[in-house]
User: Fold this.
Amino acid sequence: MTLDYGKQATWENGFGTQGSPIALRDGQVVANEHLQVIAPYHMHQELDDGTTIKLLGEGQVQIGAHHYTCVQVHFHVPVEHVSNTAATLEMHFVHQNAIGQLCVIAVLFKAGAADPILQQVITDFAAGRQHPEEIDLTTLMPRRGHVFHYLGSLTTPPLTEGVEWYVIQPLDLTISKAQAVWFADQFGDNNRALQPRHERVIEEFDLN
Assistant:
């Protein structure tokens, strides 16, 4: 069943005070964290789940001492996390570690030139279907940019909490107006409303 973003208030949430997304402001600047891709993000399946495009495949990242494996990748227009820097599309790399801890790396695309990799995703899209799709997303995992880190939740049911979020504002990733319009026309607004921060700590650092 397609998720209805117009009825978010009815989404069952039996959890606590770590909902995502949140407004990213008043962060504590911390020492730069090392974020390194240790296995490329090769996707092999593309599917329409009625709410967004999901890409399935593999990829691995190490953040500090923690190692995560990619579960799936998907997209939100408008963006879910907001800050003082405007963004048009939010791409979620959803990961899990060996003990089941979830980590989402969110990449915020600014308005600008069309992205060729996103264009391949759009061009090959088949409404209502899952199909083989060979695409390398590794270059869309930023190596430079500003990062916000906090503890939150999934932004779709079951809204699981305890998720490590790394929201990256890259220096050089953009999406064209036509590409953003395509996502909006295809899926409608698929962003969860901002959730209360509840005194959670937001950390900030730069990738370099």
Summary: The helical segments are 116-123, 177-187. The CA atoms of residues 80 and 191 lie 5 Å apart. The two ends are 42 Å apart (CA to CA). The mean pLDDT is 95.
